[in-house]
Amino acid sequence: MKLTILGCYSATPKANNNPTAQVLEIKGHLFLIDCGEGTQVRLRNSQVRFARIKHIFISHLHGDHFFGLPGLIATFQLLGRQAELHIYGPKGIKEAITLLLKLGSSWTSFPLYFHELTTTCSEVIFEDEKVVVKTIPLKHRVYANGFLFAEQPGERKLNRVAAEEYNIDICYYQNIKNGRDVVLDDGTVLANSLLTYDPSPAKSYAFCSDTKYVPENVSLLRGVTALYHESTFLHQHADLAEKTGHSTARQAAEIAKASEVGMLILGHYSTRYSSLGVFKDEAETVFEPVFLAEDGKEFVI
Amino acid sequence: MKLTILGCYSATPKANNNPTAQVLEIKGHLFLIDCGEGTQVRLRNSQVRFARIKHIFISHLHGDHFFGLPGLIATFQLLGRQAELHIYGPKGIKEAITLLLKLGSSWTSFPLYFHELTTTCSEVIFEDEKVVVKTIPLKHRVYANGFLFAEQPGERKLNRVAAEEYNIDICYYQNIKNGRDVVLDDGTVLANSLLTYDPSPAKSYAFCSDTKYVPENVSLLRGVTALYHESTFLHQHADLAEKTGHSTARQAAEIAKASEVGMLILGHYSTRYSSLGVFKDEAETVFEPVFLAEDGKEFVI
């Protein structure tokens, strides 16, 4: 699983800071998460093949999280894209994109599907045999969702020595790896656990931006391999965080600690602070390990 | 008059090529012309003070000419802008911007005025005592306008020696500079031309993008100081230019020659060509001088 940060700053732009966009590579999928203005150029810089992106997840409809989407879709069209594209985001996203394309007298010649989100409970929005994606209800100034990307549990690993000892025909091996017990000719039932080892643990990545502190999400986030949690402010500005629907670095770390996640990645920094180190320092008083998202940085999870 | 090219490439982005946006400084005004995705970052790079931009002119509603506008307006709002903002562009632009702001549950606290354009004849869309702005009807795949920015003619220059010779009271000087004749006490009429010199010639800048070859505009463009004309293609691809509603470098030069402009600036290059020099070479077979727009370049006109 590889996460590439295309942009991780909050709304007002500086010359070299980009608004939120990430690419998650998971089990052969390439998911684009949020799409702030300029994302298509950053995708080019990161040498991501546009055609591999088939699913785009938009957390909320503030400009710094989705104003790059119309341009990306227009570029897909200009490049002669054929592959279908699925967009998951708050209700209204279809109307916005449709209007912008209509004003340009264009439409896509590739299949474009909108999956508009409205509920405030976690729901499964994508699932195949390899990956499941759920929403994470966030609390911001507008309707917002985070996203939990989880590998499906892998198949169990065959204990070949045991299987041969019990003289099990090779044609049953796949069933055993799928978790089935085996009934021998004499009627004896061999529990699957005698014949297999646990699979490699399924990894997961949770994206939480933009949001105020939402401890209710701890049960949903429990044990995720990596948690990205916004930290727009430091705790000295907790009042501003509360007022604007954002979190502090300390609050992000509190969520990470309570959820017992594997690692915490901070991002969505206000540009009022002169360095990023202060966010890491503050979070590490509560939880470790803490990493800082930075434009262009890659995390192998 | 100073023109800054923020971006000058056609639609599909490369890592370091930006879509169309220009800033024209004319008689104290700072006009933004088109606003492709990422314009706000380029404005930052060019150290343009956002508050000085009070008028934005959008040629047409293809993404590479206006998808940077919603983000720029959102940033103006975040920065606490107070000054009014006027946007001139095709009908539909108000609906688009309004919807995007509404989806983000925001509106501007500064006065935002839309001047929607619909006619296919040239019309005056802005005028004050220093500058007049007219539309230039273009022919593209969607409704499109270029813009002609012209300094108002300056006042005539007083011939102080002549004025003193005729013993003219100083209180008449402003009237004389405004072009009035003078009646002496004995009834003699002194023609203004005896007392003044011609003013400095008023400069003008014409922006024509995107458009196919429109020779009908020659009378409107006659004698402009500087003409920016798109040259998406070279003449070897004249069929593509015709089909997509664009011009070749040679066609841009034909317009410049017939209009007897002071200088031609080419731009809106297709990324299919490996260098820009070929556009200049082709145009110079018809007209000189030719300059190449390049991202970040400034022209003092």
Keywords:
homodimer, 301 residues, alpha/beta, seven-stranded mixed sheet, 10 helices
Give an overview of the whole structure:
The structure is a homodimer of 301-residue chains. Chain A has helices at residues 39-45, 63-66, 69-78, 93-103, 160-165, 173-177, 218-221, 238-244, 249-259, 277-284, and strands spanning 2-7, 21-26, 29-35, 53-57, 85-90, 112-117, 124-127, 131-137, 145-151, 157-158, 182-183, 189-190, 196-197, 204-208, 226-230, 264-267, 290-292, 298-300. The first copy, chain A, contains 10 helices and 18 strands. Chain A is globular, with a radius of gyration of 22 Å. In chain A, the strands form 4 sheets. The first copy, chain A, has a 7-stranded mixed sheet with strand order 6-5-4-3-2-1-18. The model of chain A has no long low-confidence stretch (mean pLDDT 94). Chain A has 2 domains: 2-154 and 200-300, 4-Layer Sandwich (Metallo-beta-lactamase, Chain A), CATH 3.60.15; 157-196, no CATH class. The first copy, chain A, is 24% helix and 27% strand. The longest helix of chain A is centred in the first third of the chain and has 11 residues, at 93-103. The first copy, chain A, is of the alpha/beta class and 301 residues long. At the A-B interface, helix 1, helix 3 and helix 4 of A face helix 1, helix 3 and helix 4 of B. Chains A, B: The active site is at residue 64. Chains A, B: Belongs to the RNase Z family. Chains A, B: It catalyses: Endonucleolytic cleavage of RNA, removing extra 3' nucleotides from tRNA precursor, generating 3' termini of tRNAs. A 3'-hydroxy group is left at the tRNA terminus and a 5'-phosphoryl group is left at the trailer molecule. Chains A, B: It is an enzyme of class 3 (hydrolase). Chains A, B: Zn(2+) 1 binds at residues 60, 62, 140, 210.
